[in-house]
Design a protein that fits this description.
The protein has 165 residues and is α+β, with helices and mostly antiparallel strands. It is 28% helix and 27% strand.
Length: 165
């Protein structure tokens, strides 16, 4: 019974090792279509957490410290990972906030992502490449702060687990 599980793990590891590592530019263009969204509805987060990654525009009706939400996305490699994430794992987080001009409808105001790189690529970041999505383009400059904050996560620089459905 243990042999089939071992063979499956070896096969998945071999496949992951041969799979090309996505680029931030590729992820930006395809994440909403090719990654699994983990959240059925936008998940409410604290203003403190929302502000750690960016300055989200202030909500004029309720102030800058209210009504922040996220959607989270992962690729198949990241979804299947049980321990550390294998190279090629992709995680994206969209930050949403109500837009007053649109009647308070939630809209994406910022998005960030992480792509796991081969072991030893960047030990300070846990071998993750951090990027932000700015006007539909990937930006990787000045992302050192992301690695510093994420180094405090319990699991491989990632704070969230796949929610149970």
């Amino acid at each position: 019974m243990k042999l089939p599980l071992l063979l499956a793990a070896v096969t998945l590891s071999a496949f992951a090792a041969d799979a090309p590592i996505p680029t931030p530019e590729t992820v930006v263009k395809t994440y909403t279509k090719k990654l699994t969204r983990l959240t059925d509805k936008p998940k409410s987060i604290s203003a403190e957490l929302a502000g750690m990654c960016t300055t989200i525009p202030a909500d004029k009706k309720f102030g800058p410290h209210s009504r922040h939400f996220v959607h989270q996305y992962r690729n198949e490699l990241a979804m299947a990972a049980k321990g550390n994430f294998p190279p090629g794992s992709v995680l994206v987080k969209e930050k949403l906030s109500p837009i007053e001009k649109d009647g308070g409808q939630l809209a994406v105001v910022y998005a960030t992502g992480m792509i796991k790189q081969p072991a030893g690529t960047s030990p300070k970041s846990g071998d993750w490449l951090f990027f932000e999505i700015v006007e539909g383009k990937a930006e990787t400059a000045k992302m050192e702060g992301c690695a510093g904050c994420h180094s405090g996560a319990k699991r491989d620089h990632v704070f969230t687990d796949v929610p149970k459905r």
